[in-house]
Every structure is written in C-alpha cells, then in structure tokens.
Amino acid sequence: MNYVDVTLVANAGVLVRYDGTDILIDGIHYEGGHPFCKVSPMDLQLMKTGTPPFDRLDYLFFSHEHPDHFTPSLVCEQLKQRPVKFLLIPEDRYGSKSMGELLGEVRKRGISHHISSLGPGEFKSFDLKKDLKLTIIGTRHMGPQYQDVPNDCFMLEMGGINILFTGDADPVAEYYEKQLQGVELEAVFVNPLFYHNREGRRIINEIFRPRNVVVYHMPSEKSDPMQLRLTVERAREKYVKCGLQTYILQRERQKIRFWPNNL
Fold first, then answer.
1. What contacts 104, CB < 8 A, 6 or more positions away?
2. Where are the beta strands (DSSP E) in the chain?
C-alpha cells in the first residue's frame, strides 16, 4: 500500500516521497537576512552527490523568489550535478543575473521546466506520472509589504492522498474556493502567521477542511524575534478544542507519514 512521507529539510523546505518518487519543495537556499533556518551546507552537498535522504530528486518546485525559499545560483549548481525530470520556478521579476544563468543551464541541458506566472486565484495542473498530479494555485505573498510578490501553492494528488503546500500564501478565501471545491485534503501545510490569523483559521476550517494541519516555516529556536513558536502553541490550543489535528515541523529531518484516507 502506498503512503506519503514528508520530511522537513529547512524552513518551508520539504522532501515529499511517494511510490519511488521524490519531490523537493522550496528546499535549496542558503542566504541570510531572515530569522529562518537555511538549508545546511551538508544537505546541499548530499543533494549534489545523491546521498540519502536525497538519493532520488525527481522534481524541484519553488513557490516564490525569496531567499528563505529559493537561491537560483544553488539550484543551478545542483542541476549541473544532477538534472531532474521537471523544474518549477517562479517568474523572474527582477531580471537577476543568477536567474538568467539558471534558465540558461536548464535550457542547455534540456530539462523539462515551467516558469510560473499565475495571478491570484488562477491555477494550472500537470500530470507528472501515473497517480501523481500537481496543481499550482496562484496567490499573493502575505503581508502588505509583499503584495506585489506572487506565491504559488502546490497541491499534490498522490494515489488518493491530497496534500496542499501553501508557502507564504496570503489568507484570502477567493484564492482557494473554486480551485479546491470538492477536494478532500489529507493535509495542508501553512506557515505560523496563516495558522494564527483569524481569516486563515476560517479558510482552514471552511475551505481547506483537511484531516491534518501541519505548521512549517518555523523560525530557529535561537532566533525567533516575532515569538512565532509561542504564537503557534497558543493557536494550537484553540484548534485542539475544534478536534483538528495539528503537527508542527520545526526540527531538521522531522518526518510525517500520510496513508490513503480509506485505511
């Protein structure tokens, strides 16, 4: 019987493993200027050499062009060592040299790729392989200072297990209502601010309606200027009363396993 393993790499970087296929989401970055964990140099090296747990990297997805999710130059280095079956990257909005070099390498090696430029509420689907489908849902990045930054949510449909990864999506109901109508989510991954936000909670309860909520994109234990760890714990107490199971991914290599919901 197939199952899905989701392992935390760093911050919102997760490794999704299903039926012999590995998908790395927001998992190649090493830039500072933020309180969140970087991908460790050791893990970046393991990715290049194909060493477990990164021995199978089939797909790379990146939700948006922020340094705590995506470092184009490191992705370029990775692809020189180990091309992938499919690469999904955000549209280059800044004309950066590193993005240009990444795209040049991708085209040179003939790597199948998609440059996402979805507007809020737009969506696009890809059949990656049998029993594995990706749906991209366009949103905006949360926070008034980032409203001009697109953020893609990724819904993976894997043999009856549907999981939504929201990255830094803004909690705006109209972004999700049509796209998720009739979808049964086994789990939704949200960041601490979405989880704590009143409208975010309403979206989780009324639109996502998942069996499980996973909070990721947590700050490091040593650097938490916004006290997000305390915020999440207090919010979780409210969810417990509603009977909604919440998991918190905040330790490197922490793993959650999901089984088909009919078991």
1. none
2. 4-10, 13-18, 21-25, 59-61, 86-90, 113-116, 123-129, 132-140, 150-158, 161-165, 187-190, 212-215, 245-248, 255-258
Task: Report which residue type is found at 202.
Answer: R
Q: What angle do CA 57, 221, 18 make, to 5 degrees?
A: 25
More confident residue, 51 or 66: 51
Alpha-helical regions (H) of 145-218: 192-196, 198-203
Query: How far is the C-alpha of 167 from the C-alpha of 25, rounded, in Å?
Result: 9
Query: How confident is the model over 151-165, as pLDDT tens digits?
Result: 999 999 999 899 999
Residues 254 and 9 sit within 8 Å (Cβ to Cβ) = no
DSSP 8-state assignment for residue 139:
E
What is the four-CA torsion angle of 22, 26, 29, 35, rounded to 10 degrees? Answer: -130
Q: Are 163 and 135 in contact (CB under 8 A)?
A: no
Q: Write down the pLDDT at residue 232.
A: 74
SS3 8: strand
pLDDT in tens, 59-116: 999 999 988 899 999 999 999 999 999 999 999 887 789 999 999 999 999 999 999 9
Residues 138 and 224: their CA atoms lie apart, in Å, by: 29
Q: Does 67 sit behind a cis peptide bond, omega within 30 degrees of 0 on the bond before it?
A: no
